[in-house]
Amino acid sequence: MNVAVEGSLPRQGSRATGMNKADLVWMLGLYGTAIGAGTLFLPINAGVGGLWPLLAMTLLALPLTFFAHRGLNRFVLSGSTRDGDITEVVEEHFGKMAGKLITLLYFFAIYPILLMYAVAITNTVESLMIHQLGMTPPPRALLALGLILSLMAVVRLGGKFIVKAMSILVFPFVIALMGLALYLVPHWNGAIISEAPALSDAFNGDFVKTLWLAIPVMVFSFNHSPIISSFAVDNKGRYGERADGKCNRILLGSHILMVTSVMFFVFSCVLALSPSDLLAAKDQNISILSYLANHFDNPVIATLAPLIAMVAISKSFLGHYLGAKEGFNGLMIKMLRERGKQLEVKQLDKITALFMILTTWAVATVNPSILGMIESLGGPIIAMLLFLMPMYAIAKVPAMRKFSGQPSNLFVTLIGVLAMTGILYSLLF
């Protein structure tokens, strides 16, 4: 499904200069999609690894995020039709068989994230009811079902509403997140600094292993690939051949905002807690905000932290639903087309919604480890499509060869390989 954003639309092929209202909506929409459960679990994973891996992750964050999403955006723009989404562009460039495989991977790169958000929102609300409201929560299955149905009610309002809602919610969210990060400054204890090894001893096997396993979480935390297809299609319709330059400027602005705010939040949380606190948060399978609310005997943190977490996870659930729906619909369309059948979009959407409700409800009820799912499933599959597929296309697809030879291509490929191989370590050790 493609989402068009209204407001200050220049005609197709017009000069892609300046920043208009629709560009700003997209910039904030991209930011809003990326900030969610991954961001709220990143301080836990980053802090457990120690100071030096955290600093290395900070240096990698902006190039990792920008170059990867720029590559995927360029891939979607390389399609020959004006409104072809990622599933159609894959089939155009790689053929029907490869198209089926990539469409399947695209779905499974996004779908597990939806499952993680279902677990995260259930755990956040359950923790809020127990620790802050002093209530006995309902049975987990009922709580999860109620929350998921509430989110799906918002989905029914349509893709345009979701993008606009995320761009609006991002303002209070950023203010609240930065406010909480600043509020934690007096609580900084520096435990992660005092426990860090000397620089001469830092770059050992443990450092390499920690950074290696942290890359899939970083990929996941800054990921907004589910909305890139709609973003590229919308801007291609507006700016024609100049869409690449315009998209790059929007992406860079969004990523600078994203990396700056997220890493400041990460450092503030890590410096306010000890490594043992972060291990406890990981064991409890809750976000850093829920842990902060339970850890500090402070009414401001206890009230704000769970609410910020709920807003972040909810809006990212909605943003990722667009991508999961696009992938699932693409799979069904290809299966039906082979059998000479077709369904109306409304019927496809109903089947997709039912599938999403039942599966997210089941996983949220079971409550698997969120960080475990990110390290072993979400991050590696996202890396395959977000990092490696566009780089392969640059080498093989004539429409993308103009981007070959750039040093950033090697960097993106290396990060993609490291993220994918992280699953091997998780499985073997």
Could you walk me through the main structural features you see in this protein, from its secondary elements to its overall organization?
By secondary structure, the protein is mainly α. The chain has a single domain, classed as Up-down Bundle (Amino acid/polyamine transporter I), CATH 1.20.1740.10. Helices cover about 80% and strands about 0% of the residues. Helix 9 (about 205-220) crosses helix 17 and helix 10 packs antiparallel against helix 11. The model is unreliable at about 5-15 (pLDDT under 50). Keywords: Amino-acid transport, Cell inner membrane, Cell membrane, Membrane, Symport, Transmembrane, Transmembrane helix, Transport. InterPro entries: Amino_acid_transport_2, Hydroxy_aa_transpt.
Concise synopsis of the structure shown:
The chain is mainly α and 429 residues long.
Number of helices: 17
Largest pleated sheet: none
Report the span from N to C terminus. Answer: 40 Å
What is the CATH topology assignment?
A: Amino acid/polyamine transporter I
Radius of gyration: 21 Å
Number of strands: 0
**Beta-strand proportion:** under 5%
Could you name the ranges where pLDDT drops below 50 across 5 or more consecutive residues?
A: 4-14
Assign the CATH superfamily: Amino acid/polyamine transporter I
Number of domains: 1
Q: Which CATH top level class fits?
A: Mainly Alpha
The helix content is: over 70%
The H/E string reads HHHHHHHHHHHHHHHHH
CATH-scheme architecture: Up-down Bundle
Structural class: mainly alpha
**Molecular shape:** globular
- Give the rounded overall mean pLDDT: 81
